[in-house]
Amino acid sequence: MKKLPLHFRPDGGFRILLMSDAHQRPYEDDRSIRAMDALITRTGPDLVILGGDNVGGCAEKAAFEETLTRLVQPMESRQIPWAHIFGNHDRTPVLSKAYQETVYESFPHCVSMRSPADVPGEANWFLPVCDMQDRPVFGIWGLDSHQDFTGPAAPLPGCPEGGRELLLPQRLQSRSDDDFIRWEQIAWYVRLSGEHEAKYGGRIPSLMVLHIPLPEYREILLNPVETDMRGECHEGVSSSEVNSGLFAAALQRGDVCLIFSGHDHVNTFDGVYGGIRMGYDGSIGYHGYGLKDAAAPENVHRLRGGRIFDLRITDPWHPTTEMVLVGDAV
After folding, report:
1. Nearest to 213, CA basis, from 249, 186, 179
2. Rounded distance, CA 279 to CA 203, Å?
3. Tens digit of each residue's pLDDT (9 = 90 or more) over 212-270
4. Is the pLDDT confidence value at 46 over 70?
5. Which residues contact 73 (CB under 8 A, 6 or more apart)?
6. Cβ(149)–Cβ(179) under 8 Å?
7. How far is CA 133 from CA 8, 130, 137, 189, 218, in A?
8. For the chain, what is the radius of gyration of the CA atoms?
9. Which 3 state secondary structure label does DSSP give 29?
10. d(CA 237, CA 44)
11. The pLDDT of residue 295
12. For residues 154 and 231, which has the higher predicted lDDT (pLDDT)?
């Protein structure tokens, strides 16, 4: 990592702020951006991650570039390193994610990067957080979880209809049409993780972020006591119908201690399953859907916020995390 290396602070801490589902569109008001600004002021992160579904509704390159410039201004103006992953709504028929990635990387403080050529998706990356000797102490994996089966980004040779035949009336997982993490992405993670272990003499504890949640999140809902479930659930887990085995790969490698997603705007729960704390970031965007409460419609934006992760160089295997709501930051 050469652009802006990430290091623990002199006091031994490092804070990550994850904000998902901004859904910022051209010509809309900047309420979501002001909320991001307030959360950054409140939490003082060392790294910000945009968790997908960042910019939408852009039919022209100029509109996308102007909207993204506004969206990342809270980080760029403070010179805070920031990264991004793509969500299912980031691709448009006009603006490919490959083009969008070039715009993201053009910002001085963007530290996420394009995927290797043989890995599906446009933004799969690993960021090390190092000590003062530039030795990785903690890692952050970003994965592109693609779009949906009505127009999969990566080909499915076994599906003549491109994936639509996977969407049966009765399903194992959910009623969502979402795509899945591909085996090439998992193989890339396993290979790179193993190379890190061989090079540095041990596994590197890590956070993994992806936009679309994993099917294993339901284990937390079904076993709230056993998984130490925290937070709120107001909609089903919208995972892919196809379980690609990413969770199993993380279990076998033994270096991922956190997996977090966006996508389901009004879920903020998390819990521990198989030694991995998994859960949601919630939603920062005021132009996406919120809570539906006919009795108290003013609560529609109550769960807007972001999630912080606090790392300690003395104990990188046990980071802490919590949601920070905009209502508490303003």
Report:
1. 179
2. 23
3. 999 999 999 999 999 999 999 999 999 999 999 999 999 999 999 999 999 999 999 99
4. yes
5. 33
6. yes
7. 11, 7, 10, 25, 41
8. 19
9. coil
10. 30
11. 60
12. 231
